[in-house]
Specification:
Elements lengths: L2 E7 L3 E7 L4 H7 L4 H9 L3 H18 L5 E3 L5 E3 L5 E7 L2 E7 L2 E9 L25 H19 L10 E3 L7 E9 L4 E11 L2 E9 L1
Antiparallel strand pairs: 1-2, 2-6, 3-4, 5-6, 7-11, 8-9, 9-10, 10-11
Helix pairs in contact: 1-3
Length: 212
């Protein structure tokens, strides 16, 4: 199986990460899907997207020790049918991650550092944000910002949030792992979030949580 991490995190959070090593048939055999879930699965045209969908459910089963259905609200945000946990999901390349909490809102994002993110940095970096000039660290630094803003977007569940103008990451020194502060500011809200990031192989993971 592809479970590479199951870790109790501070503040009542549980993190799980799955590496997709199995084929469709192997993943499908592990989970018990209901009719609407099967229909959703069949609507995916891309084979890798099908694997991602199945890997999320296999990982969740490993984290909580049983079958719990994942549903989606009108904005396509996932939630658990039995409301036993708050859930956030991310997948990129060969990894799938889930962050769970019984008492906190959660947001997680992971990204495989594959493309030249500097080419699109102008779309999501706030003018006041500071990015290192070190060419060996710049790509990593930008990916931390991108993942952090994805995690903030998920935890706030606000479709109208603009990554460049409404989401801000306070300046920090880049390391293999660390804690950063994210700020969400819009006409509707102003909140600060303590966030944690780390590097796993060629992936960046950023997560945050907030009291319900």
């Amino acid at each position: 199986m592809g479970l590479i991490e199951k870790k109790e995190m501070p503040k009542d959070c549980l993190l799980g990460t799955w590496e997709i090593l199995e084929d469709y048939e192997n993943l499908f055999s592990v989970v018990d899907l209901e009719e609407d879930e099967l229909q959703r699965l069949e609507r995916f045209q891309n084979y890798n997207r099908k694997l991602e969908y199945l890997s999320v459910r296999v990982l969740l089963k490993n984290l909580i020790g049983g079958e719990v259905r994942i549903l989606y609200d009108l904005t396509n945000k996932p939630y658990l049918k039995d409301n036993s946990y708050q859930i956030s999901i991310s997948h990129s390349h060969k990894l799938t991650s889930i962050l769970l909490s019984r008492t906190k809102r959660v947001g997680i994002d992971l990204e495989f550092m594959s493309h030249r993110i500097s080419n699109i940095a102008y779309k999501f970096i706030h003018p006041a944000e500071k990015i290192t000039d070190n060419p060996e660290l710049k790509k990593y630094h930008l990916y931390i910002h991108w993942c952090a803003k994805e995690a903030l977007y998920k935890i706030c569940n606000k479709d109208q949030l603009n990554f460049k103008h409404n989401l801000y990451i306070e300046p920090f020194e880049v390391a293999e792992k660390g804690d950063i502060k994210g700020i969400v500011h819009s006409n509707e809200m102003h909140q600060e979030f303590n966030m944690h990031y780390f590097k796993m192989q060629n992936y960046v993971v950023v997560m945050c949580c907030k009291q319900l």
